[in-house]
Design brief:
The chain is α+β, with helices and mostly antiparallel strands. 51% of the residues lie in helices and 18% in strands. The protein has helices spanning 6-53, 123-158, 160-171, 190-240, 246-276, 292-307, 328-345, 376-379, 400-410, and strands at 69-74, 77-80, 93-99, 102-111, 114-121, 287-290, 312-317, 323-326, 351-358, 362-369, 414-419, 426-433. Strands 2-1-5-4-3 form a 5-stranded antiparallel β-sheet. A 5-stranded mixed β-sheet has the order 7-9-10-12-11. The longest helix has 51 residues, at 190-240. The radius of gyration is 50 Å and the shape is rod-shaped. The model has no long low-confidence stretch (mean pLDDT 78).
Length: 441
């Protein structure tokens, strides 16, 4: 298509503008020159007519330079120039009369018994205009092709940065996110380059995160799978032996297999949960609701697991309505991950406290305990994928807090991890923005 190319469009627009300007200027010059030449001839007609009114002709044929004609009537006698057309306007003044296919410009003057009619064919004016205008227009007409070539060269030259941008992007190899640098880029192109470089930076960061994530997933899955393979080899060897304690060994091997399968299953479930709660791909709408019943129900389901380690769980809240734009699933996932994280990494008989508070502009959900001991350096990385505390012997995927962080991103909230000043363990606080008044219970 014609307008699919920027260079062709610019060349066409610029050429059309120049042709339009020349055409308008020529028409304006033609109109002004036509009026000037007609006025000059009208002055000449008036001068000749005035002289004839004051002159008595000596013969019937009046001599006058062609293409002018003269007709003079004194009483009832006509005096006229050779080949003068028989034109006699009814009234005095200037007239344009068509006679035998020729347009005449005529002036009639009358004084006492004398009537004078002078005129000339209008084509005289047009011939004079042609003689004046053509020499003026011809250089422009000859220059138009040259001007078109100049416009073409200038447009192509000015669009060089776009060509350079295209070549630079084409040369970029897969997974190469080098910032673009275009020499002599005009001002209008610089925002485009800046935007592309920002996009490159985000793509690079995303690609590096995914590469790290894939490596961590492979590492987390490789360990239990290797153990499972060794356990199966041991079972095969035990089946071929006749040792008395072979049954006990098989039982222990099967228990190891079960434990590692549970770990693999936990990692896979956590990965699926991370995919579902990723802020860039979460498409479910958030609804205004009271999250207090959801938290109470989720905590009730966790009590049996905490009782296995004689851990105490308390839930502190000050009102009966805590409204938030969210979904029950997301709130349940946050509570599950935070409380189970404390449960796994705390000693038997540990104290776990869940607190829910609300202020005018935000809502805070805090889970703190008295059992986990984590260094300050580790705390800053606990929300990253596959990062775990010092107790790496405890089964876990290392994705729990990363999932919570993603859910906070969906809510445009924040998650902070610190050492609790009172209990001495971890203090994890999730802050949800809450811009509207609380809903009814």
């Amino acid at each position: 298509m014609l307008f699919s190319s920027l260079s062709r469009t610019l060349i066409l627009i610029l050429t059309s503008l120049i042709v339009l300007i020349i055409t308008v200027a020529t028409l304006q010059a033609y109109r002004i020159t036509l009026l000037e030449r007609q006025h000059a001839h009208d002055v000449e007609l008036a001068h000749i007519a005035s002289l004839l009114l004051q002159t008595q002709p000596q013969q019937h044929h009046v001599k006058i330079k062609a293409p002018l004609f003269v007709r003079q009537k004194i009483h009832d006698t006509w005096y006229e120039s050779p080949d003068a057309p028989h034109i006699l306007p009814e009234h005095s003044g200037y007239h344009e009369i068509m006679l035998n296919g020729t347009l005449w410009r005529v002036l009639r003057l009358q004084q006492d018994v004398t009537t004078v009619v002078v005129g000339f064919p209008k084509e005289v004016v047009f011939n004079e205009l042609e003689a004046l205008i053509l020499p003026t227009i011809t250089p422009f007409l000859v220059a138009l092709p040259v001007l078109g070539v100049v416009i073409f060269v200038v447009v192509r030259f000015q669009l060089r940065p776009l060509k350079q941008l295209d070549k630079t992007l084409t040369k970029q190899e897969d997974f190469q996110f080098t910032p673009l640098h275009i020499e002599n880029a005009f001002l209008e192109l610089q925002p485009v380059i800046l935007t592309i470089n920002k996009l490159m930076s985000r793509l690079k960061a995303s690609y590096e995160r995914e590469q790290s994530f894939s490596a961590n997933v492979a590492h987390e899955l490789k360990t239990p799978l290797t153990t499972l393979s060794l356990t199966i080899d041991n079972l095969i060897a035990d089946a071929a032996s006749h040792e008395q304690n072979a049954c006990e060994k098989r039982k222990q091997s099967l228990e190891n297999m079960q434990a590692h399968l549970l770990r693999v299953n936990s990692v896979v479930e956590s990965l699926l949960l991370m995919a579902k709660t990723h802020p860039h791909f979460y498409r479910k709408s958030l609804t205004r609701m009271n999250i207090l019943p959801i938290i109470q129900e989720t905590l009730s389901a966790l009590f049996p697991k905490l009782n296995n380690k004689q851990q105490s769980l308390s839930f502190d809240y000050a009102q009966q309505s805590y409204c938030l734009d969210t979904s029950p699933t997301l709130i349940s996932i946050v509570i599950d991950n935070l409380v189970l994280n404390a449960h796994k990494y705390c000693h038997e008989g540990a104290q776990i406290i869940v607190e829910l508070t609300q202020q005018a502009a935000q809502m805070s959900l805090t889970v703190r305990d008295d059992g986990q001991t984590v260094t300050e350096e580790t705390i800053n990385h606990l929300s990253e994928r596959f990062v775990r505390g010092s107790q790496t012997h405890i089964s876990g995927s290392g994705l729990g807090l990363s999932i919570v962080q993603q859910i906070m991103d969906i809510h445009h909230g924040t998650m902070t991890v610190s050492i609790d000043s009172k209990l001495g363990g971890l203090n994890i606080t999730c802050i949800f923005p809450n811009g509207t008044p609380p809903c009814a219970v």
